[in-house]
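User: Hey, my collaborator sent me this sequence without any context and asked if I could get a structure. I don't really work with proteins. Can you help?
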Amino acid sequence: MRNIALSTLIALALAGCGQGSESEGPVPIAAEGRVAPTVAEYPAEGSDTSPGRDDGITELTLDDGTTVVAWIDPGAITDVYVQHTVGDDWSEPVRIFESGAGCLNLGAATNGTTVAIALGCYATDAFRQQAPDQGVAIVSADLTSWDRSNEILEFSSSPEVDADGSVRFVNDVYPDQVVTWSDDDGFDGD
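Assistant: No problem. I've predicted the 3D structure and written it out in structure-token form, which is a compact way to encode the shape of the chain:
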């Protein structure tokens, strides 16, 4: 799995995918006038249509038709951005996390209103560690404020969002460690 993620990140970095330099962050893709990358611009190794959490990008559609894109910047894998449509336009990209050495996987889910993102990141060396040692769970119920739990350490997850908006992050590294989030209580580790 690490080889697939590494191969994908190298391909993304070489392709450039319309991204700016490390200091600029994402820049508009001139032909489309969009800022957010599209799933088609991030070829997913071993995936037909929908990106997986090792592909560095995910695109979700909310009940109201809003498209939400979250991605690991291939030019600076330490930076993770999110952006969404506002009518026919795009919001400004927002950096929701900056890791110490880089993020190699991103998983996301929605119930149509709440968005949950799980990041497998590394504090010191993204290519020597076996398991992500700077895991992050991120949730938003309004696409404006993002709650974050980054005290998880060794963590990798594909979040699950219930119909009521509560979120469950089951840790793939240590399955008995579960992080939950609710709109009323925020994050709470089980």
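In plain terms: The two ends are 27 Å apart (CA to CA). You can pass these tokens on to your collaborator as they are.
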